Amino acid sequence: xxxxxxxxxxxxxxxxxxxxxxxDGVENKFFAGCFGILGHGNVAGMGQAIQQQNDLKYxxxxxEQSMVHTAAAxxxxxxxxxxxxxxxxxxxxATNMLTAAAGATINRLPVLLIPGDIFAxxxxxxxxxxxxxxxxxxxxxxxxxxxxxxxxxxxNRPEQILFALPxxxxxxxSPSETGAVTLAIPQDVQAEAFDCxxxxxxxxxxxxxxxxxxxxxxxxxxxxxxxSKKPLIIAGGGAHYSxxxxxxxxxxxxxxxPVAETFAGKGALRFDDPHQLGAVGATGTPGANKISEEAxxxxxxxxxxxxxxxxxxxxxxxxxxxxxxxxxxxFDAAKHGGxxxxxxxxxxxxxxxxxxxxxxxxxxxxxxxSEFNQSWEAKVSKIYDYRHDNLLSQGEIIGxxxxxxxxxxxxxxxxxxxxxxxxxxxxxxxxxxxxLEYGYSCMGYEIAGGLGAKMxxxxxxxxxxxGDGSYLMLSQEIVTSIQENYKITIVxxxxxxxKSIGSLSRSLGSEGYGTRYLYRNPDSQKIxxxxxxxxxxxxxxxxxxxxxxxxHVIECTDYTSLTNALKTAKGIDITTVIYTTCDRxxxxxxYGWWEVPIAQVSDMETVKEAYKDSLEHKKKQRFHH
Length: 625
Description:
This protein is α/β, with parallel strands linked by helices. Helices cover 36% and strands 18% of the residues.
């Protein structure tokens, strides 16, 4: 057997560079590169290997959390068929990745994490940044990744990579098991040399199978569909990742079953398709939520039925409602006691189509769905055109970006009040034009995610919509976008604090307490809520902050200047920040219920009233089994 002498880090990089995936006859390289900050726990190992071999393109980042966000956004745009590796030092460099790693796993997106680790030899312990335990020496901060990783391993001997790396790839390329994968490599082991079999570095293609459901189950599902009078498809992210949207459209036009969409599923149909009900659940449209309430059969297509999708288990009120769940994971396919069609979304829809000849929903039902679509679009137009007192509403800002963006351009967001409004109001014109991270709704995802989306498809304009709260959490990857010449347009909305949780606080009777950016009240010694004078507001200048990071900045004061800024930004070739203020209290009507626990006893009358109202909503919660 021929061998080649390499360090562990060199062998890892060489192996990752030879990994490919193939689905439906289309093959591509799985790793687009490696993000990293090269510190004392990986500079002489992984860093040296990347520098020497140059097999995987190296990208700097400014924050370890953001590089994982960037990798996840890239993987999302690529339908999970490509991603990045992310390497860090041991200690804070590693644990900075925890938040984004959790997001990748929750959203079922493949990202490879390679944090450095403490010395395997242990002779110099405790090393810098080592977390010591009196109960075990085989323990480091990297153990924190175990509950949020789909696969976790620590390499204590060089030969272990021969068995660990194939497992890493098995999980990353698995439609049902993918998420964050952590391969912790002690810093001394990274630099250790060994004789590795040469054929270990041969090109390896991982073929993504289209799993098909059990034959008897799919026949049962077809029978349930044929018997249903008011079926509804809820399209989730799995419909996109499976590349099932063309088949879904064929399925819908054959059966005329309407479609409602989760955050991850939005864009399954064009916004103006007569079968399109739009957003579903707590942030849903009136039509989607009315049809959900009456549905006798819910077909979950690649959805995990989050509390927003089900309006905290109040969405489906028909006492006879049944569920057919199409999902590659058994865990999600079993939810709500549904009939489990465990399989690939595209393959399963194709098989169902062949069993539904002659089936269509009643014309009256189809007409009702079409009317809901049209009435909602009329409402959206009014929200887009809302004008009042020279203050911009969030709906107007969304409308300005939507009407200016081309069909294939991408709007990207993650946290705050923007996701709910975008879910309801954004008119999706192509399948990837709506990019929301809402499985974790991680503040700070937006700009890093925008960079990942741009890297995945540089031909698209990326419009990152972000509030001041998320911007202040994690804006540093503006620098990376400029360094790598990936231009994104950031619409930065100054809400004078946390707009979303301010609204939530008011709805719970807590009067917006602690949600504005204010000086501490010298009398009450509190950071007050909504009723404050202007001189209490903190003097934050977000536009100057963005300039300091190298972005081109355009400041807007009204709707006209906003639309002009969008036109100007289109012609600028570096990352551009369009800064505008927003009416913090002007929201979008029609949100459904979402359960947030309220204090059962309180001295505040507003809290008492909110609690009573919550009890009424809870009466509608249903247990589906």
